[in-house]
Amino acid sequence: xxxxxxxxxxxxxxxxxxxxxxxxxxxxxxxxxxxxxxxxxxxxxxxxxxxxxxxxxxxxxxxxxxxxxxxxxxxxxxxxxxxxxxxxxxxxxxxxxxxxxxxxxxxxxxxxxxxxxxxxxxxxxxxxxxxxxxxxxxxxxxxxxxxxxxxxxxxxxxxxxxxxxxxxxxxxxxxxxxxxxxxxxxxxxxxxxxxxxxxxxxxxxx
Length: 206
Fold this sequence. Notes:
By secondary structure, the protein is α/β, with parallel strands linked by helices. It has helices spanning 18-31, 46-57, 62-86, 97-105, 111-119, 135-142, 148-166, 183-203, and strands at 6-11, 36-40, 90-94, 127-132, 174-178. Strands 2-3-1-4-5 form a five-stranded parallel beta sheet, with helices on both faces. The radius of gyration is 17 Å and the shape is globular. One of its GO terms (cellular component) is cytosol.
């Protein structure tokens, strides 16, 4: 019987260690003999590069920025995510549409409406790990604080983003993982949950 693909997403505010945990989880799945694709959003495609360029040039108007995220994600789904899952691979993403809900939600959009727009074409993950960290600790990890006004703005924005991420708690595929401990402890908890999901899938004959 062919293995079914498994779709895992890691989310959280800046500074929670998503990239490190994504790569570690990918390596663990490879040790289980699975073929793994680790990716991120924004992607390195044309729309994603345009979004990333705004880190240096300044953010776009909210509507324009959201439109780029949707274009980038649609291409990501069509060209990488859906084909990889159909081939039975494990796909692990560092950020997905939940980040768009959080960060564009901070710019005045309704997170629920953003989710609806995305789920019209983007598959929901089998597992969503929200790495949670208090804002002060996140800012300390990020470093490079600017002037006081910018720091207050960043603090308020991250607090709102964290609130949106935590609002997902209670959904069956969502797991809130405290990331205020060392990376190995965080990874152990993630692997434990992933292993349980694999066992359940095997028992159900998926």
